Amino acid sequence: GYALRQLRMVRPSLILISYADIGAGHIGLVYKATNWLFTGETKVHFDKAYADGRHPRSMTPEDREKGSDDVILVERSKKNRYVYLFDPLDKAKLRNEVLEYPKEVSK
Q: What is the reported pTM?
């Protein structure tokens, strides 16, 4: 709450976007508690990665361009997308419709 209040004073027309990683078991309860708008899930994305487990950020430009035998595609986990509007009139600028908050996953 404090950070949002400070941002509102500095940038009253700011629009914030944040994501909760569904694959890590996060649905975004903190966003719901602080009145962010839920606008759905991200689309499916794939990242290039090394098959032997090396981190993809260590991938050489050559591997990214042409690929190699030890490079595979790994599906990225979906994320819940949340938007926070400092100015309620900015809601008309949203590209995605506002949806009901996702339900908590029972453990």
A: 0.79
